[in-house]
Amino acid sequence: MSALRSLLLLLLPLCPGPGPGPGSEAKVTRSCAETRQVLGARGYSLNLIPPALISGEHLRVCPQEYTCCSSETEQRLIRETEATFRGLVEDSGSFMVHTLAVRHRKFDEFFLEMLSVAQHSLTQLFSHSYGRLYAQHALIFNGLFSRLRDFYGESGEGLDDALADFWAQLLERVFPLLHPQYSFPPDYLLCLSRLASSTDGSLQPFGDSPRRLRLQVTRTLVAARAFVQGLETGREVVSEALKVPVFGSCSQALMRLIGCPLCRGVPSLLPCQGFCLNVVRGCLSNRGLEPDWGSYLDALLLLAEKLQGPFSFELAAESIGVKISEGLMYLQENSVKVSAQVFQECGPPHPVPARNRRAPAPREEAGRLWTLVAEEERPTTAAGTNMHRLVWELRERLARMRGFWARLSLTVCGDSRMAADVSQEAAPCWTGAGRGRYLPPVVGGSPAEQLSNPEVQVDVSGPDVPTRRRRLQLRAATARMKAAALGHDLDGLDADEDASGSGGGQQYADDWMAGAAAVVPPVRPPRPPYPPRRDGSGGRGGGSARYNQGRSRSRGVCVGFQTQPILVLSLSALSLLGPR
User: Fold this and answer.
1) Which of 54, 162, 320, 341 counts the highest number of beta carbons within 10 A?
2) Contact call for residues 478 and 299 (beta carbons, < 8 A)
3) What is the mean pLDDT of residues 160-176?
4) Of 549, 552, 554, residue with least CA distance to 531
């Protein structure tokens, strides 16, 4: 018996004791030296951090076991973990805000520079062609470009009004120049404008040039305006969406994730990857912008391709002077026919004494000059770049943005402050309670999957009001850009009558180059003539018998199309506010 007792005493030191439980790594060391070093570097007062572990019964979020944190330290760490999470989210998406802002600035500068180049080219060519006569009436042409810029910048009226006013003012000044032997008082010019705007189209003093110019400029400016608006909307939406609010359940989960290891005295123990994904996905639940984000990017690329191809801004801007010159040459070449119709309808004008007559416009010189210009190579750059390069850069940068909101949780948890690296998955990590392996299932980011999130209690009511508003903004911008790609302007509720229905885009593409075969416009319903508006000789002023007709066209003739944008936006709103 004594021999057996001696044997047992000999073997007892070799028997293992009970295994380490949760938190045993802290109980073994019972030191807060590492925590004091980390928090001291962050500016914490070491008087608030004990040198050794103390009882954690006072803790509200972290496990109430042995701890290095006082109540004050825990509350401060909660605020810091929230700020760390918000900063990581904003940093992850900052490249999108910067990219959209830079692309908006570059495209906006390019479009405005192209208009300035077109205006400068027209001034140069018309000055050489018409000399003093152009200088006397330059305000008409400058006013046209001013109103084009206003429309592009959202501060102007409809393009139909601007172009109709321009052609009416031009006719009132050019027609008397063709007949310097006659006097044309204001009443006679009023009759001329009414006759030119008659519904039967019997008098077309500038031929088909006004219609073709309207097609080119309207579609291009509508597309360009919708495009830059879309870039600006995207920047604003992303900037706001990245400012993620942290609610109660999310705040506690973030503290357990990256704050509690400090309180347990093991700041070097990184959180488990699965633990981080569950916490971050719960905090980001219902905050993303998918699937509206993908549709928005598709619409941006679609409209950019249109502006590079069928709706080329470069060609449209450069052809303004060509179309105007073609209209003037048509009037000069058909002046006998046009004058006969005018004299028949408005009566014969009164002759002017020979000493008071003005010299006729240099018709042959104008035609020769524009023929030479049309054969020369036109510039393809403005603001230090060209459309092809801008679209290529945009396509490359937007590719990085696809799927951003779906990948955001992986991006955040890829930071060393949030979780251990995926390659160290097998190594022990912080589970929220101690050292070990994270056993709960890692849930996906969809709303249905987030209902079973083990770390964050997700709001089952769906996206909050700010998120819904941002999604609606994206859908509205997407609808506006898709409509602009078809030649429609949702902002002005103004349908393009010459391209409504199927095949409109192709009809417009056929009408690009100067001198191309004219496309016969569809028949328009009759409308009564209106007296011209006379606000001055330049800018927005000048007489136009079609001034109010442009407004009546957008309010009366286009009723069938006006329901379309309202329907598009209404469906977007209903899809957000309906069942989730």
Assistant:
1) 162
2) yes
3) 87
4) 549
